[in-house]
Amino acid sequence: MNVPVKRTVSLIEPKDNSRSGKEDLRLSDFETDYSYVLLGEPGMGKSTEFKEEACRIHASTPIPANQFISRKPENHPEWRKGPLFIDGLDEVRVGSGDPRDALNKIIEHLESSGKPQFRLSCRSISWLEPGDRKRLATISGSKDVPVLLLNPLNYDDIRKIISEPNANAFIQQAHDHGMQAFLFNPQLLDLLLTSVKTDGWPDSPSKTFENACWKLVQEQNIEYRDARSYSQQPSHEAVLRAGGQLSALMLIANKAGWSYDYTDDSEILSLRDVETQDDVTLRVAFGSGLFEGGLTRRTPIHRLLAEFFGARYLHQKIESGLSVRRVFALIMGDDGVPFPDLRGLTAWLASLNPQARKILIHTDPAAIAFNGDASSFSLGERRELLVNLEHSIDLTSTWPSAAALGALVGSQGASLIWELTGLPERSESRQMLVYQLLRGVSQRYSGMGVVRRLGPEVQLEVSRKNLLNIVYDPSWQEFIRCEAFRALNLLLVEKSNREMTIGKFLSDLQLDLLPDEKNDLRGTILDLLYPKELPPPEVWNYLIDRTVAYRHNIYLEFWHRLIDRSQENQIRELLDSLCDRSSVVIPKLANHRLSSIVPRLLARGLDLFGDELDISDLYRWFKLVKYDVQTSQLVSLDSSDRSYNRNDEANKTIRNWLSERQAIQRALIEHDLLTQESRISDSGMIGLKFVGRNPPAGFRLWCLTRAAELWGPHQIAAKRLAWWSVSIKGRWEDPLPDHKVEQIVSDIPGLREWNRKRLSSKDRAEQEHTEWSNKLANIRDADRERRQKELEAIRQQKSELAAGNCVPDLLHHLASIYFDGFATGGKDPKSHLESYLEGDMSLARATLAGFRSMLDRDDLPDLDQIAHLHENNKMSLFALPFLAGMEEENDSLIDSLSERGRRRALGFYLVTDRPMVPATPRGENLVNLFAFNERYHPPWYEKALK
Questions:
Q1: CB of 539 closer than 8 Å to CB of 523
Q2: Which of 43, 432, 635, 844 could form a cystine bridge with 645, CB 3.0-4.6 A?
């Protein structure tokens, strides 16, 4: 990738880190971390990112992991000054030995070098989680070694790399030819560009590599070409074969590259050791574009390419008579399974060679399905592969590339998927297999919104019906149903039955007829259909009435991101429609703890359209918010939960907008006073939402002047304005002096009388201020009294609470507060609980003791009873307190529980909506963002299953 683009990363471990789930993170965001690990698929650009980051911070050039291991730390004092960028752990993991040995050697060298800061890169498939991260943590004594995933390129990156006027046309062609997955990987994109420029568009991933390789053999190293001592050039096919030989030997020997001459580097092979009858061709391949470096040391331009080349060479040798068993003797262990570091090689060999495929489909189906090209497999071979894959699929960390999945599904694979989904089997391995296959369907159907060649209409209709069945079938896990809808959404692009199908979904969603226990499917549908098929005025219809347990899911995240993802005209539509339905919508937002959307939406609308609206329309928008005395902020109507209602940034925007437009601000105040004139005597809040605690300079003079103008028709409003001109209020400017007041009101008999009565008592102004202050104090005292009564009621049950014998409702309520600590941005639920209890540490300790006491009780519902409650849409009030107790105890506690206790823990955990951290972002849609949020479990959960 010659064109530099700004790459992003995702934090995938630890999941409770404040940066987890954030978009647009960069390596620079982790500059101060002691260490981190960068994962990525082959060709994603890990080495490039390490080079750029090292250059940015003026660190030493990244060192290959094989060199770091093979050298002696005492000979490299520069290693003591970190950070060290150690590149390519995956390339030094010995297939026939313990894969942990390489990392252990790196740790030893780091300790010998004084434990400097370090960064380590590795292929995703070669990273052993959580063992590798725990071993790395021993260096610093920290458990929080960040593990990052290098994100795919986005479309802007792709266009920049293509750097042609017709970049969009190239992207569309990639989609039309099923090569869209090649777009998001820098190395694959370079290969695709090279291949297309050479021979046009291929019809399979293997053909893409083949075409790219033909181009690369022509890019011979200039130095080598100038130094050559022969004139007869070998054919390109001969060079490709020789390059494949070098690649195969290097991979099987677990080495890093080749040297033209003999070398002392144990990680480099020498051309002089290769037995060949065509030394010239071997040297041409060595100097070609298949490898990079100088005359004395050259390495493959990328391991992914070396794997394809090596497999191509082995395939040709088998075709020429070499026994498959002899090949397998080199690439498999005693257990008959390919060495881990050779899985890429064997995956390509299975793609190219039918003889090897028959065996490898059984010995390593995951590598064949997820790392190679199954586009040439027969229907029978695909069926056999899927059968074996289901029995060996990794349920925790398997994340195959989109290219492999698209090839696996292909034009024939859809029928096999529908065979699987039509059966009653719903085991965890079946569910995971179906999910990955549906990802392949989505990959195959993805396009850019123009006419696409997806296959016969009859076949597409079969796919549509089967996808519909999955979406409506609650026996499939929600993330699978979400992926089915995503695939269906892509399949229906520009189809005549799209409107009918989507309309049915939206209707069922609004009527709550679509089974969706945790609302992730609802969130997926909203995310994919807004705002095209689901216009802004209608989106409020899909807020549900029932309470949603606050955990990170697609539904809640959709609403959190609604404003950010809406275009300018859509912001106005959202505001106007919210005004029409505020009495229905705002309570639902409050029920979901989404009240802050209202001031945020108002702030955005003012910024975009405020200057275009007349006062009545502006006032209509402002009726969505009220002035909160406690916080001195504008908050949503009908919301008493200040933790989720206030938004400092939105308030600052609104206040700044008003202060910069005094004429509009004053017009809104007057409109508010006149509109609510009959209520002025009962409320001191009228008009204050527009000035708050810091009215602009000259405000008091305007109040009295305007009072004089309004006295005739609007005496109540005028009197309120008059009092504002002389009242003593907080941070307001000094009241108008008496002589100024007398001068302004001299021509208005009614105001003269008002002023005479005001002056008749020297303490009148102070009295009015006292009354106002008392009113505010009463409001604050009432709120404080309510909280104190609530806390006092808890204190009265302190002993029972500590023993876990208090009212179950109280335990449930306090556990909900405890777990809200995850949801509100804090990473310590205990601190959130203490804040709620107003710092009463004794009461907090009693509460935590009550949680822990749940673990020893045998009178709580057992697993069967928990399941029965769940089936009837009920939940035990002891579930959250029990889980909070598990959270507070050491992970090893699960071992001391009885079998009944462990089953109870699993039951409570599996049926309870838990606060969770979002999974790794893998694309632009929330569907992918949260697809695996239920795959991450606390350590005690894994132990309980054993």
A1: no
A2: 635
Q: Worst-scoring range by mean pLDDT, 170-179, 425-434, 478-487, 521-530?
A: 170-179
DSSP 124-168: GGG--TTHHHHHHHHHHT-S---EEEEPPP-HHHHHHHH-STTHH
64-98 pLDDT per residue, tens: 998 999 899 999 999 998 899 999 888 776 444 67
| H or E element, residue 866 | helix 863-871
Asked whether 257 and 268 are in contact (CB, 8 A), the reply is yes
Q: Beta-carbon neighbour count of residue 445 at 10 Å? A: 25
* Cβ pair 314, 320 in contact under 8 A: no
* Residues whose CB is less than 8 angstroms from the CB of residue 894 and which lie 6 or more positions away in sequence, other chains included: 886, 902, 905, 940, 943, 944
Question: Rounded to an integer, what distance in angstroms lies between the CA atom of residue 190 and that of residue 195?
Answer: 9
Residues 6+ apart with CB under 8 A from 693: 632, 730, 731, 732
Token pair belonging to 664: 């509009």
Distance CA 783, CA 473 (A): 47
Beta bridge pairs of residue 293: 298
Beta carbons within 10 angstroms of residue 760's beta carbon: 8
Using DSSP's 3-state secondary structure scheme, residue 269 falls into strand
| CA 91 and chain centroid, separation | 29
- The per-residue b/e assignment along 603-622, b for 16 or more CB within 10 angstroms, e otherwise, is bbbbeebbeebeeeebbbbb
Structure tokens that stand for 186 in this block:
């820098």
- CATH 1.10.10 for domain 9-151, yes or no, is no
**Cβ burial 466-501 (10 Å sphere, 16+ → b, else e):** bbbebbbeeebbbbbbbbbbbbbbbbbbeeeebeeb
% of the chain residues with pLDDT over 70: 85
Full DSSP string of 404-440: HHHHHHTTTHHHHHHHHHTSS---HHHHHHHHHHHHH
State phi, psi for 120 to the nearest 5 degrees: -130, 135
Residues of the chain with CATH 3.40.50: 9-151
User: Nearest Cα to 91, choosing from 116, 68, 66?
Assistant: 66
In this predicted structure, what is the pLDDT of residue 714?
A: 92
Amino acid at 229: S
Please give the full DSSP string across 238-262, using - where no structure is assigned: HHHHHHHHHHHHHHHTT--EEESS-
